[in-house]
Amino acid sequence: MSARAHPVDGDVSPTTDGGDLPIKSLSYRHKVGVPPKPNMFHDFMYTFKETFFHDDPLRHFKDQPKSKQFMLGLQSVFPVFDWGRNYTLKKFRGDLIAGLTIASLCIPQDIGYAKLANLDPKYGLYSSFVPPLVYACMGSSRDIAIGPVAVVSLLLGTLLRAEIDPNTNPEEYLRLAFTATFFAGLTEAALGLFRLGFLIDFLSHAAVVGFMGGAAITIALQQLKGFLGIKKFTKKTDIIAVLDSVFSSAHHGWNWQTILIGASFLTFLLISKFIGKKSKKLFWIPAIAPLLSVIISTFFVYITRADKQGVQIVKHLDDGINPSSFHKIYFSGDYLVKGIRIGVVAGMVALTEAVAIGRTFAAMKDYQIDGNKEMVALGVMNVIGSMTSCYVATGSFSRSAVNFMAGCQTAVSNIIMSIVVCLTLLFLTPLFKYTPNAILAAIIINAVIPLIDIQAVILIFKVDKLDFIACMGAFFGVIFVSVEIGLLIAVSISFAKILLQVTRPRTAVLGNIPRTSVYRNIQQYPEATMIPGILTIRVDSAIYFSNSNYVRERIQRWLLEEEEKVKAASLPRIQFLIIEMSPVTDIDTSGIHALEDLYKSLQKRDIQLILANPGPLVIGKLHLSHFADMLGHDNIFLTVADAVESCCPKLSDEV
Length: 655
Known about the structure:
Elements lengths: L4 E12 L5 E9 L9 H13 L13 H12 L2 H4 L5 H28 L4 H6 L3 H9 L6 E3 L2 H12 L8 H24 L11 H18 L1 H5 L10 H10 L7 H23 L5 H21 L29 H32 L5 H16 L7 E3 H9 L6 H17 L8 H12 L5 H10 L1 H16 L2 H21 L3 E6 L6 E3 L12 E6 L8 H21 L7 E5 L8 H16 L3 E5 L3 H9 L2 H5 L4 E2 L2 H15 L1
Parallel strand pairs: 7-8, 8-9, 9-10
Antiparallel strand pairs: 1-2, 3-4, 5-6, 5-7
């Protein structure tokens, strides 16, 4: 509907009407447009589409022949059929170098991460063989490197250990791990399939920073067992229990040879990382440093037989590729519910990390990834992985960064890495027999250090104190209690912040910027002046049942405070209350009732309520509820300036 206007006395215009005398023109004040009466079905479909299909995923299928639609559908599920058509030898060279580089990094990391999950080292390698192959066919990110990661491994190990002791019941523990992985994949795939990816956004960036930092410290502390050669170590993960276990065994449990190996190679890894940061061309040095450390330390232990002196080693590592594990997944019994619970938690954390990594590198290379497709790919990958002796895999930030810097072009780099891991499983596993646990601890400590993002914490503190509380809550929850409690705190604080912002929206008093018709927050613009007899307030949120009473009470408090100031300064009393409605995107029946109550309250005090620029949804509902009739259509204006202009003559008349 076009905007309507009615005449108001205006300026003299030189326009003539067939003669020499000028005639007085009329300036027009536009009324707020009222949209057509909404169709309930169309309104529902629009909301449904914007909630679940805001990216219009079927737009490419419009006006296409059946054969083309089939191909587009295939490419949508398996992006490899899309980018694979334009794959060249030049791209393969980049992927080959990147794949070999991340393989050299992932092999020693996988062995260590499996230990974090209280699993045999071979399961870490299994999880870097099958899942990357599946992701390469279904994933849309060109840069993400797939495999086990430290945080998810620790989380999974902690949750599984709470149900089953891996030392007394290793077979049941393994079965529960596969069950949790299956349901983690099912959760991820379901979120993507039903377009519910927005749910992971409820975990705020600040909460993730705090959780990751706390998890990194917890992981590093857990590595003190292998780093110091301690045989009897606490099963708890909180910092107090771990440090107590470390220092109580200082006189008889530490092994100096182990400490020497761990400290020497940790120093080497940190120096190599420093060199890689100084020069991007030398990115390969920190990438191959872990594998080089494993080779050198293993050779050193073998020739000196340091294992006879108390240096703990990996010992036997089974060769061969992934056996089937479908028959080991619990589909009934008590462990089924436990597997679902653990899987959902681990899957959500893995999903959050992978999508964040994918978006980061996609932005750096200026291409788009479909979050929901990514979830389906990661989910299918873990479901298939659970059936092939893998535990939860996701995107690894350290490996993805190396993959990016090594010049990867497509997901083929994951395939190259997977092939190298496969060859390692088939032919090279006996070589890891004498690998000291200390070197694996050093590799993991080196890998998790970047997860402690101090600069991000400082920025969060400067920008938003509530975010900082969420960050610290998650951080201290992880290091002082447990990983799952830290995660629960992170989610709880994130939800609390959302509820706080929804239930306590900001409001502001507006003033006129001198020599303009613009009205802005007087706290932001101290030069803005208030019009005597008029109070203008802006509500910076939709008005719903959750905040309607607060909005009404806050407006009344603004009015009371302003009346006290006016009385003290002997200025004209407030006769008009203008509410700037531009930021109010929607309103429900509770919000309308709050406006009605405010209007009636103001009427008793001989103060006129005026609305400025309500949006289409808001003005439509105000008309349907007849509040616009109650208020008076002449008291609804397009702009604050129009409202003030209308009020000023009335103020002059009373004076």
